[in-house]
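Lab notes, practical 5.
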Amino acid sequence: MTLINYLYVIALSVMPISELRGAIPVGVGLGMTPLNATILSVIANMSIVPILLIITKPLFTYLRKYKFFGELIERFENRALKKVKNFKKYELLGLYVLVALPIPTTGAYTGIVAAGILNIKFKNALLAIVLGVLTAGIIVFTIVNGFTLLAFSN
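Output from the prediction step:
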């Protein structure tokens, strides 16, 4: 394993869309053990959560002044709002589930936007999102580890 491979996994973990759901399998593909890829990806994905929880709402407010960014933000928030509708009445549990399910267009970024839309307090949102990231990491680890064991068992 080279430093570049670790940095690649970290970069994928903190990027919207791929997050740890993409980083863990890529890490294993690059030669990491499923456990190492998961630990690195979960830590990297969690590291962005507090920062983004603090800056997303003010940043979106500022960027809305510009037509191009305003339209992008509107689309992103509308997409998040569609997902939040299913979880809104459960608030924190719903936010946790939204982040924990390792399916496309869910994850820490969607959870951060959803927390802003629902006006969830920082501490509560942080807890729900971080636990969701941890759970998603465990789920992806289990899937990737299962495939790895199947692939190398024969």
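Observations recorded by the TA: The radius of gyration is 16 Å. Helices lie at 3-14, 19-29, 34-47, 49-63, 67-87, 91-100, 108-117, 122-152.
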